[in-house]
Inverse folding.
């Protein structure tokens, strides 16, 4: 099983960007943790980051050919991008939305997610653990679905 992890805008600055909100762990450290957990769960994990909405959309469109599922932190695009939502719907790839901070405890404009309604679920507020919880939840959901279709 192959899982794609996408990181949205400004997540390349983890470790130095607003550490009181996002912590001090770097994106590279998040990716290493995800790969290690993937090995433990028996899945392959590939991670990518972009600050460009169109690039994220292209990767989502291409994902269906190579990946069974997607863990996605759309960052600020969560609250603005109908195009990302449409890409998820168009390819039909199972996706778990993750956020480091609890978006529902932040500014009011951050409380709306255009992607949550088309996600298997949303995990937020647990720092880097949000990614790991999201990966576990996605793999579990995909395995349960696979068992049902046997």
């Amino acid at each position: 099983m192959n899982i794609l992890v996408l990181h949205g805008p400004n997540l390349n600055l983890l470790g130095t960007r607003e550490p009181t909100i996002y912590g001090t762990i770097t994106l590279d450290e998040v990716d290493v943790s995800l790969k290690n957990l993937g090995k433990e769960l028996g899945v392959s994990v590939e991670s990518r980051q972009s600050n460009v909405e169109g690039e994220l959309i292209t990767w989502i469109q291409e994902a269906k050919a190579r990946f069974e599922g997607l863990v996605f932190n759309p960052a600020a695009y969560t609250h603005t991008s109908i195009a990302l939502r449409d890409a998820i719907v168009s390819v039909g790839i199972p996706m778990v939305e993750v956020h480091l901070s609890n978006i529902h405890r932040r500014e009011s404009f951050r409380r709306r997610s255009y992607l949550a309604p088309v996600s298997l679920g949303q995990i937020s507020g647990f720092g880097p653990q949000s990614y790991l919880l999201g990966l576990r939840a996605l793999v579990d959901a995909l395995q349960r679905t696979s068992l049902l279709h046997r």
